[in-house]
Specification:
CATH class of the largest domain: Alpha Beta
CATH topology of the largest domain: Beta-lactamase
Strand order of the largest sheet: 15-14-13-12-21-20-19-18-17-16
Largest sheet: 10 strands, antiparallel
Distance between the termini: 53 Å
Oligomer: single chain
Mean pLDDT: 95
CATH superfamily of the largest domain: DD-peptidase/beta-lactamase superfamily
Helix content: 10-25%
Number of helices: 10
Strand content: 25-35%
């Protein structure tokens, strides 16, 4: 979504993604956590020069080091807490106690080191001082006034919002958030957050590099990155962006699933930025209609192939069992959809049966388990791409993740290969072989 002068200039979603769905923001969540701290500061509940230890005396080490004693809220905001290495940010491990137990070899305020647990500590401080999670604290102050509907924020094992990640909102909500910052805390004529906080949060508070071609080396504010060309942004893994252009009076909100985040910003600077003009541009109704048609028809490609399996080795309805594996996949079956259109992938995962409908040349929506979450909005499409080969694209519609599942049927076995479009770590395809269960032979 592109906004200029407070109006939507263009917007589009690639099906099966849509305007109504929330999206996992990853580290773009950090900018919302920073905003919660800004409200707490404005209400006199927190000061940026408060020592971090004062909020968590029960979680402090028995003998805190001098650098830990010196760590302040300002250092959490600017990613300069003094750590050399992060503690685990996993929801089942992250806590104030684990953060405070980490060695602090650098003087706080002097060493920039991107640190997701530091943002969690900001969330924990807000919850300590207000008795509310940052999600609940922001509802009447930010989410409700801006019309951000049904935000969701994952918590750690103690019920504290993760802060550094885990927030889900719509693409439009990201755009509203950016517009709120562009207007320096004003919304519908009301000053919700002091302009001084917006200015501090979006300014270069610390240096983080010297590469003039990198948008990750332009300085860091309060959980916001400075950009080239006078802009600033919040961003999250795999391409979640909220880019604010003060000089152009514009906001760009992007939710995506990609590996090269700098490449997207390069396109913004090389292709989009030159299009902003100070003078009013003449109308181009034909071009505007062409753009609107294009944006309304965006769709991710579905697997190309046949709607029929082909191949003597393919037995629809045959159950294939798998040896013990990390994914917990016990067995799978491919069936024709009851409607006669598309396919039904039946997977048995850790003793539970999950039925995933796959459209033929279209996306079929459903819900099911995904990445540790038991009930995610999904969309899938499948086709027989070669004799005895079934390929399905499976999209977790509130995340950047799209899986490609390839099943190669041959005799009494099936080779299952699963690959992801993006992922943390090596992101290598996984492969396993299943064998037919004679008890379910459809013949």
């Amino acid at each position: 979504m592109l906004l200029r002068h407070g109006r939507v200039i263009a917007e589009g979603w690639w099906a099966p993604y849509d305007a109504a769905s929330r999206h996992e923001l990853y580290s773009l969540s950090k900018s919302f956590t920073s905003t919660a701290v800004g409200f707490a500061v404005a209400e006199g509940l927190v000061r940026v020069d408060d020592e971090v230890l004062k909020f968590f005396p029960e979680d402090a080490p028995a003998e805190p080091s001098a650098p830990l004693k010196a760590m302040r809220v300002q250092d959490l905001l600017t990613m300069t807490v003094g750590h050399q290495d992060e503690v685990s940010s996993a929801a089942d491990q992250l806590s104030a106690k684990s953060f405070l137990a980490q060695p602090v070899p650098h003087k706080p305020g002097t060493h920039f080191k991107y640190n997701t647990p530091a943002t969690f500590m900001l969330s924990a401080i807000v919850q300590k001082r207000t008795g509310q999670t940052v999600l609940d604290y922001l509802r009447p102050r930010l989410f409700d006034p801006l019309g951000i509907e049904q935000p969701a924020w994952s918590t750690n094992f103690q019920g504290i919002s993760l802060g550094g990640y885990g927030l889900r909102v719509r693409t439009e909500d990201i755009a509203r958030f950016g517009q709120f910052y562009l207007q320096e805390g004003r919304w519908n004529g009301n000053q919700l957050l002091p302009a001084s906080w917006i200015q501090a949060a979006s300014s270069r508070q610390v240096s983080n590099g010297s590469n003039p071609k990198s948008d990750w080396d332009q300085g860091y504010g309060y959980q916001f990155w400075r950009c080239r060309n006078g802009a600033y942004r919040g961003d999250g893994a795999f391409g979640q962006y909220c880019v604010v252009f003060p000089e152009q009076d514009a906001v760009l909100a992007i939710t995506s699933g990609l590996k090269d985040m700098q490449a997207v910003l390069n396109v913004v600077w090389d292709s989009l930025l030159p299009g902003f003009q100070r003078r009013r541009l003449p109308s181009h109704h034909a071009r505007q209609k062409e753009l609107a048609t294009k944006l309304a028809s965006l769709s991710l490609p579905t697997p190309a192939g046949s709607a029929q399996p082909g191949g003597a080795g393919v037995l629809l309805g045959q159950r294939y069992r798998f040896p013990t594996n990390n994914e917990g996949l016990d067995a799978l079956t491919v069936q024709a959809a009851p409607s006669g259109q598309g396919w039904l992938l039946v997977q048995e995962i850790r003793g539970m049966e999950h039925r995933l409908p796959c459209g033929s040349r279209e996306w079929q929506h459903s819900r099911g388990p995904w990445g540790g979450y038991p009930d995610e909005p999904l969309a899938a499409s499948g086709a027989w791409t070669a004799e005895g080969t079934f390929v399905a694209q499976i999209c977790a519609r509130e995340t950047p993740y799209i899986a490609t599942l390839k099943l190669q049927f041959e005799g009494e076995q099936v080779t299952r290969e699963l690959s992801m479009n993006v992922g943390f770590g090596g992101n290598q395809p996984t492969r396993m072989i299943g064998r037919s269960d004679p008890a379910t032979d459809p013949r």
